[in-house]
């Protein structure tokens, strides 16, 4: 019996097929009827897809069943150490290192003792024109979970 294709191997095939077919992540998300950030993360291996979603993606990208099987499998979430060396990803780490303690204090002041869920969670990305250079707007929208003692 052959093992299930790894999420990283499936992601490499997906990225190549998407580029070669001239499709954007947004177009793929629209075809699936799912949010673009979630769709991109799922196709890069961070979320499992339903059987229907995996089938649709593989049809659009002309990929075979081993990729669909990988898309349906449960992931190990989070990036490896190599991901942290990417400049774009590292800027998020840096921003949270600088502003994380302040955000934590403000969450506690506004909501009380608890955390923002990253499971019951939405994330969005937008471009905002600015005369000094376009701005990247990232919105984290997580349910507040209070600590119950």
TrEMBL record:
Cross-referenced InterPro entries: Cyanase, Cyanate_lyase_C, Cyanate_lyase_C_sf, CYNS_N, Lambda_DNA-bd_dom_sf
Keyword field contains Isomerase: no
Catalytic activity, reaction form: cyanate + hydrogencarbonate + 3 H(+) = NH4(+) + 2 CO2
CDD domains in the record: Cyanase_C
Domain spans labelled Cyanate lyase C-terminal: 79-149
EC number(s) given by UniProt: 4.2.1.104
UniProt entry keywords in alphabetical sequence: Lyase
Domain of life: Bacteria
Entry-linked SMART domains: Cyanate_lyase
Broadest EC class assigned to this enzyme: lyase
SUPFAM superfamilies, A to Z: Cyanase C-terminal domain, lambda repressor-like DNA-binding domains
Pfam families per the UniProt record, alphabetical: Cyanate_lyase (PF02560), CYNS_N (PF21291)
Active-site positions on this chain: 91, 94, 117
Molecular function terms from GO: cyanate hydratase activity; DNA binding
Protein family membership: Belongs to the cyanase family.
Function per UniProt: Catalyzes the reaction of cyanate with bicarbonate to produce ammonia and carbon dioxide.
The protein's name in its UniProt record: Cyanate hydratase
Organism per entry: Saccharomonospora marina XMU15
């Amino acid at each position: 019996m052959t093992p299930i294709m790894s999420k990283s191997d499936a992601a490499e095939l997906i990225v190549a097929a998407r580029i070669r077919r001239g499709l954007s992540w947004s177009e793929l998300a629209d075809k699936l009827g799912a949010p673009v950030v979630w769709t991109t993360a799922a196709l890069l291996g961070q979320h499992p897809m339903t059987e229907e979603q995996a089938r649709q993606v593989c049809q659009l990208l002309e990929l075979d069943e081993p990729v669909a099987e990988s898309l349906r499998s449960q992931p190990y979430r989070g990036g490896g150490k190599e991901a942290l060396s990417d400049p774009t990803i590292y800027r998020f780490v840096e921003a949270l290192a600088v502003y994380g303690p302040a955000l934590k204090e403000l969450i506690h002041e506004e909501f009380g003792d608890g955390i923002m869920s990253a499971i019951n969670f939405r994330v969005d990305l937008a471009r905002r024109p600015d005369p000094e250079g376009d701005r990247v707007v990232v919105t984290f929208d997580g349910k507040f979970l209070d600590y119950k003692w």
